Amino acid sequence: MSERKVLTKYYPPDFDPSKIARTPKHLRPTGPKTIPVRLMAPFSMKCTSCGEYIYKGRKFNARKETTDEKYLAITIYRFYIRCTRCSSEITFKTDPKNMDYTCERGAKRNFESWRDSDSAELKETDEQRLDRLEREEADEAETAERNAMEELEQKMEESKREMQVADALDEIMQRNARIERGEKGVKEDQALSQVRDLAREQREAEERADAEAARKAFEAANVERARLEEDAKLQAQHASKLLDSPAESPPAPTFDRVKKFKKPLVPGLVRKTEPAVQPPQPAVVSKPAGLDLGDYDSDDD
Ligand SMILES: [Zn+2]
User: Fold this and answer.
1) Is 86 annotated as ligand-binding?
2) CB of 67 closer than 8 Å to CB of 95
3) Of 44, 144, 204, 220, whose CB neighbour count within 10 A is largest?
4) Are 150 and 156 within 8 A, CB to CB?
């Protein structure tokens, strides 16, 4: 068993490697390299030698060959298959320009109505194609921008319409309210203006009430302040009095009714406050009752 594990091989002195008939793989002359692959027929075709139809999707053991052709740095491959009936060789290539395959030899591609051979897209040159792609990209960017603007405009329009709808609804509600109040028969415009006037009056009344409340509040604040000041003054007086006569107790608070100074009901009309020395007015007494109106003419007395 030891010979199984030999580390060196014995070459006799008369060994001549050139006499070995079979050349090793890496020394053999290389043609176009082909790889066996499994593929499906990419299009329907008809064998030119026997007329057999080979439909799209039929599976084949094929050879794949890398050609020297290129389209925009994309390698083009060639495939070799054999006819299923006569075994004649059929070849087709990839067509990256049209994202398709082209039948090369041994078969004829079936007519497909969606592939218009006269179409401009199939005929255009690389330059034209590049131009077209660039143009399309620019167009796309432009449309995106325009779409954003359109969206904005649409939004604005929508908000405007919403406001209009709200206004119309308001008007309708006002009209309904008027109708409910039984103001039919009046001209609509008049009624509407009336309703608006009412609303305005209501608003004004509310504003007036607010102003009044504010005024009162301020007045109350003033009164409070005045009262506080008065209190402070009184306290100061009291303190001084206490200093003068500490024994004297403060006067007890009285709950007597304090006579308030009556405000004149109407400004300018003041009742005279010397009723004790009421001078007799014989002229007035002697006047006949029917001529009482003359009293208004006070300048004459
Ligand atoms: Zn055939």
Assistant:
1) yes
2) no
3) 44
4) no
Q: Which residues contact 49 (CB under 8 A, 6 or more apart)?
A: 83, 86, 88, 106
Cα(112) to centroid(ligand 1), Å: 21
Parse the chain into domains and list their residue ranges.
30-117, 124-184, 185-229
Q: How far is the CA of 96 from the centre of ligand 1 (A)?
A: 27
CA of 90 to the centre of ligand 1 (A): 9
Residues with CB under 5 A from ligand 1 (ion): 47, 49-50, 52, 83, 85-86, 88
Per-residue pLDDT tens digits for 98-117: 899 999 988 999 887 777 66
Ligand 1 centre from 86 Cα, in Å? 4
16-29: per-residue pLDDT in tens? 888 877 777 777 77
Cα–Cα distance between 235 and 258 in angstroms, integer? 21
Q: Which two tokens stand for residue 255?
A: 């709950």
**DSSP-based three-state secondary structure for 161:** helix
